[in-house]
Design goal:
alpha/beta; Spore Coat Polysaccharide Biosynthesis Protein SpsA, Chain A; 3 domains; 9 strands; globular
Length: 427
Amino acid sequence: MSKADSTVDRYLRRHAVQPPQWVELAAPAEELRICVVIPAYDELENIEDVVGALAVDELTPEAVEIIVCVNNAADSPKRVVDANRKTLELLRSLETPFALHLIDRCSPGRAFPAQKAGVGEARRLLMDLATRRLHRVGRASDGLIACLDGDSPADPGYLDALWREMSAAPQALAGVCRYRHPIPDDGNHARAIIAYEVWMRYFEAALTLTGTPYAFQSIGSCMVLSARGYAQADGVPPREALSDFYLLQKIIKTGGRGSVLQLEQPLVRPSARPSTRVPRGTGPSVRASMFDGDERFVWVEPPRAFFDLRRFFTAVRPGFETPETLREAASPFLDEIITRWNGWATIDKLRTHAPDPTGFERQFHTWFDSLKVVKYANRSKENWGGVFVFDALAQLLDEDGSAIADVNAEEATIDDWRRVLEWIRGY
């Protein structure tokens, strides 16, 4: 048994969710390479577009299958339950070039218990099932689990590009697709989603500048994982929100720097609609901006926080041999944060157990993970105040201002916001 087979087999035996007894799917085709998994809650108006957008030119149709989990809680509103029933009927009527499997977690007696319902539970069920099916056809090592949402279609060429790029990087355990939120015509809605995406791209650029191995965006509908990588990370946590964040963080911790690949061609268009279906993420962020006056994505984490973090992270490898180098590289504020986390003692312990500078750096970033970077950035904003995102981008990326409108937050028009968005998308 190969190492990948052993890893996947261990995960399936010890941790994977067993599908309900009423779930009986046809056996996977021997040519299966990619399982596309889609949780769908109240997506009657969107799901056909998402499924219909999937096509292949280089792969054969037998290399792909789609698994949709139409789900709600046992106590969900009748409107949602009725919409989900119609969604099942619609999906059963579709003709697709791929095998299309449906999991009913919405009908009476089959819905998720109220205390466990949510996209995290649905995604866990889907990804565990996909892992089983890829393992069954001998694709534990390179078989892919592509995650979409019921309102987030992919652009043409998505499936072929996933396979091509992930196959060319066998060391990668996961990949992150490019993304573009659709921008609505309504000015208030447009500004809300543009500000959110501009902030996302600012934060990703800031992470890249620091040198952290977690420098990528965590968007559930943009993830693709190998069955091996998914099993190595012990599966997706069944959380109501941020399950994608924690899964990709675990991939880096188990696989090391470079185990999450930034994909070049696959493009997904996540929904821009305001919603309250999850406690965190795009929907509630857009809603808070539109209806509550929330401007957290207009006034963002100060660039100086990331410049300080870059200087500190650059000193990690030298700090293996000379601990004082690492301490001297920490700004007073960062030193205060690390001290509050009892971090210096932890770092000293990591140094004692590390075999060399490379091992020390990896252990350090396992401790100073993506969550700690976010916490540090949030504390920096509280300490120094937020910076208007146009100014923050100019400072972070050392621009002369020619590409970014030289206006303040109060004067910025929707055209200014659109221009900055298109600029940062192409950066």
